[in-house]
UniProtKB/TrEMBL annotation:
InterPro entries: NAD(P)-bd_dom_sf, Sc_DH/Rdtase_CS, SDR_fam, VLCFA-Steroid_DH. It comes from Methylobacterium oxalidis. It holds the Pfam family adh_short. One of its GO terms (molecular function) is oxidoreductase activity. It is found in: Endoplasmic reticulum. This is Short-chain dehydrogenase. Belongs to the short-chain dehydrogenases/reductases (SDR) family. It comes from the Bacteria. Keywords: Oxidoreductase. The lineage of its organism: Bacteria, Pseudomonadati, Pseudomonadota, Alphaproteobacteria, Hyphomicrobiales.
Length: 270
């Protein structure tokens, strides 16, 4: 199919296969917000989840006005197990058939110098809450025989990363979970995708104390991921992610660890 034809049929294919509604975590900014906007353009009703209720409410008003869709806002801190459970319960009372788990954050610097509470919070958000929400929606999708799940992996998921060791470990968990679920759930009508971008120009770098001088846009990541859903198990969305994968692929795993360590030194130098 020609590229322009694929792009024109993309929104309708997406909605026909995974509509009428989608839930997006981490929807207040960055990649999560880009997913919300793309899905709104495709006609999805939305459930938007993030910590900042005021920001979510403003986004919801804008998307309703632009696209005439129904948008529900759910303020939740996914590092709190009880709040993550409330998000999971949305599966029982909304016709959500697409889950985009974009919530997450990172830390950087030597692991032994880091704040343990922050490292454990990151595991809670990036791994435990993601698993909790994914389990609830996957069960619901299997019962219906149809659904889609996008889990945000990363370029750092494929090897250890000095100065971002715990963050890379959480993304390795997400990548492995998505790969397993892709094979497990596809025969039951549910598509699962790991999206593994490279550096992205969002507020992530500031929170993680990383300097990201150049990178992909959140919209590139969202568009590439949605286009790949149902067609493969893992996508490196955008040119930069593919270029970085190509550069790292010939190296043995230990070589990739050393290379990523040098990159992180440059990104985290104070």
């Amino acid at each position: 199919m020609p590229r322009h034809a694929e792009q024109s049929e993309f929104p309708s294919r997406l909605h026909d296969r995974y509509g009428p509604a989608a839930l997006v975590t981490g929807a207040s900014d960055g990649i999560g917000l880009a997913f919300a906007r793309r899905l709104a353009e495709a006609g999805f009703d939305l459930v938007l989840v993030a910590r900042r209720e005021t920001v979510l409410a403003e986004i919801a008003r804008d998307l309703r006005g632009r696209h005439g869709i129904d948008v529900q806002v759910l303020a939740a801190d996914l590092s709190d197990g009880e709040q993550a459970r409330r998000v999971a319960e949305v599966a029982s009372d909304r016709d959500v058939r697409l889950l985009v788990a974009a919530a997450g954050f990172g830390t950087s610097g030597p692991f032994v110098d880091g704040d343990l509470a922050a490292e454990l919070d990151m595991i809670d958000v990036n791994c435990r809450a993601l698993t909790q929400v994914t389990h609830a929606f996957a069960r619901r999708f299997v019962e219906r025989g149809r659904g889609g799940i996008i889990l945000m992996s990363s370029l750092v998921a494929f090897q250890g990363v000095p100065r971002a060791a715990n963050y890379a470990a959480t993304k390795a968990f997400v990548q492995t979970l998505a790969e397993g679920l892709h094979a497990e759930l596809r025969p039951r009508g549910v598509d699962v995708l790991a999206s593994a971008p490279g550096p992205v120009m969002t507020g992530f770098g500031q929170r993680a104390a990383m300097r990201i001088a150049s990178g992909q846009t959140p919209d590139e990541v969202a568009a590439g991921s949605l286009r790949a859903l149902g067609r493969r198990a893992t996508v490196r969305p955008g040119f930069l992610a593919k270029a970085l994968e190509t550069a790292l692929k010939p190296l043995p795993r230990a070589g990739r660890v050393r290379m990523m360590g040098r990159v992180m030194v440059g990104m985290t130098a104070r």
